[in-house]
């Protein structure tokens, strides 16, 4: 059954047509709305009162989740059932952050002991690198760690490393190379000493073109300097599910940190893919990060739907996308440390829910995943917020903020910055919701010709997520919150959020075209592609 066939979807369609709700009226009619449309879980406070919905709409959305079997599907995922039907795999990233004594089964086998065995090896290795016990080939301790990976093997580690930089060992340089554009590698290593550099080659499949190309270049760079194949063992470790490919590359599988096919790439930051992060912030902080994810997992698994943060965020998103006509979601973290969070979420959300067929392969008759974008505030305010406030499109926003600053500025200054930062969060969501009427504009003495220009229609929906401070634990909970939000939306839309066939075609075609660029063979593409390749051949 498609979601559009449910009674709740039909009720929501009627409600959307009948009720032209405005946030001004909703707040005027209920002075307690701000407290009523809020929920808490795993250290996060969610205010969704500035979404354009009332109790009837919220109840219908909750009915939709029930009718679409969100709870059953959630429980099936947590039990290790093979809900990734197109790849025949379980979806068990929640097992990666489960406590040591948990029992979570894939194919009848408890996976938690193997998860903790790898975590223990990661912790041990991280301690050796951080303490200087792990030596490079010439006896130097490691001063720089370079993660080579792309997609889920890069975006999560980069985002979390930046987010938790405050907790990182400042004696270590940590870099991330992802792009097959050679300038990425060249710029990231130009000031590094090969004798004290450790490469972590992170790839679930260990076949990804970008990562393998960069890994081979890194190996050449190292060997050019150190001149001995034996150096590879001291300067390269691998994170992968594919031991054969790791061996073939020349990395001793003793230096490989394993994960499993039931971990999707975009859900893998909490697996060994988090090795660079573990080295940077230390194993104790990494455990706190996993504990934060687990806090949110427990909240997601047990909180009633009407108080369940991922469910509420998913359902308000569905209301905005499927009934109010929005097609994107702006994610606006008011934290410079979270500057890469929107980029990370782009993969998490868009690779998961950018799907056009249901689980059974039928064409969907409704919109699925939104376009996710955003930037850290307040910077974004001076770039694209104009369009959110006064443009013609409806752009729902997620604001994210913290009560406390981590910043060691001169005495007292840190919290001043934080107050100004947070004043902007509250001001933006207030302005988006309530705008400024022509009467108010006139009341400011604005000349009549400028009144339309200075009028803000308002009624633009947003949610606000707040936590006390940015810690490994609160970051972990935030990431798990979005993972589960994406899951709930996928469950309602009846799509497979855990495959990514759409990325494959471009990969296959690139492999075919690569040798044609340096050759002279006849070209058999369309006339545009042929002309582009000929141009490149001439100019390269
Ligand atoms: O972009 C497609 C994709 O398969 C992602 O899902 C994945 O995170 C990324 O490529 C990298 O894959 P791998 O970790 O196997 O190198």
TrEMBL record:
The keyword Amino-acid biosynthesis does not apply. GO terms for molecular function: isomerase activity. The keyword Isomerase applies. It comes from the Bacteria. The active site is at 351 (proton donor), 382, 507. Catalyzes the reversible isomerization of glucose-6-phosphate to fructose-6-phosphate. Belongs to the GPI family. This is Glucose-6-phosphate isomerase. It comes from Deinococcus piscis.
